[in-house]
Amino acid sequence: MVSNKKPWEINILDTTELFSFGNYMQGRYLGLELLTCSLGVESPKTEMEGAKVNYSYWTEKDLDKIKRYCELDVDSVIEVLLAVSVE
């Protein structure tokens, strides 16, 4: 549970921070789609992209579609971490 912890007490691995190598120039970052493509991992952006979440929520009222989009992102992050892990 993280609700009662201070930010520095929470162990989080941010792939954007991990793969930016300290480069945060002009708000640019390495997106998950480019990261997965670079590592030969299937892109999670096959069914929907982040820009469409707003439309899916407010217009289509399709929470299952948004849920699936988030699940695919999580699965892809796991695959990225497995692809770069060193034993």
Q: Let me know the average pLDDT.
A: 86
Number of helical stretches of at least 4 residues = 4
Helix content: 40-55%
Structural class: mainly alpha
Sheet of most strands? none
Query: How many domains, as an integer?
Result: 1
| CA-atom Rg in angstroms | 15 Å
Q: SSE string, helix = H, strand = E?
A: HHHH
Range of strand content: under 5%
What is the approximate shape? Answer: globular
> Stretches where pLDDT falls below 50 for ≥5 residues?
none
Find the count of extended strands (DSSP E, 2+ residues): 0
Q: Report how far the terminal alpha carbons are from each other.
A: 29 Å
Please, could you describe this protein's structure?
The chain is mainly alpha-helical and 87 residues long. The protein has one domain (7-84). 46% of the residues lie in helices and 0% in strands. It is built from four helices and no strands. The longest helix has 22 residues, at 63-84. The protein is globular. The two termini are 29 Å apart. The model has no long low-confidence stretch (mean pLDDT 86).
